[in-house]
Design goal:
- The chain has about 230 residues and is of the alpha/beta class.
- It starts with 6 loop residues before the first strand and ends with a helix.
- The protein is built from ten helices and eight strands.
- The protein has a six-stranded parallel sheet, sandwiched between helices. It has a two-stranded antiparallel ribbon with strand order 2-3.
- It has two domains: about 140 residues, 3-Layer(aba) Sandwich (Rossmann fold); about 80 residues, Putative phosphatase, domain 2 (DNA polymerase, domain 1, Orthogonal Bundle).
- Helix content is about 45%, strand content about 15%.
- The longest helix has 20 residues.
């Protein structure tokens, strides 16, 4: 047990949910149906990267407030122009956007969450939309004590207020809250906001997964290891 920790807030996109498999499967299926040769991973990584670029514009007041569903969808409009051979109709883009709502989880996540919930309040804290994380959690068959999307907080991570507001919702101090993620930048921002930090090594490489993790309160090889360190 980690003394003083009452709440665990989890990043989920890439940390818990496997967004790469779900989006790539949807894009690959469409490309095969259209007989279009396509670098599917590149398409999907571009999709996700540009969503975060748009999210940064929202955070800095350069774009109207939008949730992740709207941002993912707007990026698809750009990609439709860049990949004309796919002939992406509006309906195609809507269908592709649903891939974010059926993300699976890494195999060690369900048992780890069950173990952690016996000792802590365990919540999502994500920039993804409420709809995305609720649908994907149901799809993956996992449960949480709470689902906190930054769209409900009125401020997006990595702004310090996002982490601090999440702690406030549970009537705990930031220092009694641990942010859990595979992305060092997310954890560093949480650390600056006064939270404890738990780093779990990523299953696969993705943007934001690089960086020094030696300064975090807990460093785990996987979710089984993380749960054991937090619960024993």
């Amino acid at each position: 047990m980690i003394e003083g920790i009452k709440v665990l807030t989890f990043d989920v996109g890439g940390s818990v949910f496997d967004w790469q498999s779900s989006t790539q499967a949807a894009v690959r299926k469409l490309a095969e149906e259209r007989s279009v040769e396509l670098d599917v991973p590149k398409f999907c990584f571009t999709w996700r990267r540009r969503m975060f670029e748009c999210l940064s514009e929202v955070r800095h007041g350069k774009r109207p407030w939008q949730n992740a569903d709207a941002l993912h969808r707007s990026v698809l409009d750009e990609l439709a122009e860049e990949y004309p051979k796919l002939e992406l109709t509006s309906e195609d883009r809507d269908d592709l956007n649903e891939a974010w709502h059926r993300m699976g989880v890494w195999e060690d996540v369900p048992d780890a969450l069950k173990q952690l919930r016996e000792h802590y309040i365990v919540s999502i804290l994500t920039v993804l939309s409420t709809s995305i994380v609720v649908d994907s959690s149901k799809y993956a068959g996992i449960d949480w004590d709470a689902y906190i999307s930054c769209e409900l907080l009125g401020v997006y991570k990595p702004e310090p207020e996002a982490y601090q507001k999440a702690a406030e919702l549970f009537r705990v101090k930031p220092s009694e809250t641990m942010m859990v993620a595979v992305h060092p930048p997310d954890l560093l921002a949480a650390q600056r906001a006064g939270l404890k930090t738990g780093y779990v090594k990523p299953k696969v490489w993705e943007m934001g997964a690089d960086g020094d993790f030696s300064g975090f309160d807990v460093v785990a090889e996987d979710y089984r290891d993380f749960a054991n360190k937090l619960c024993t």
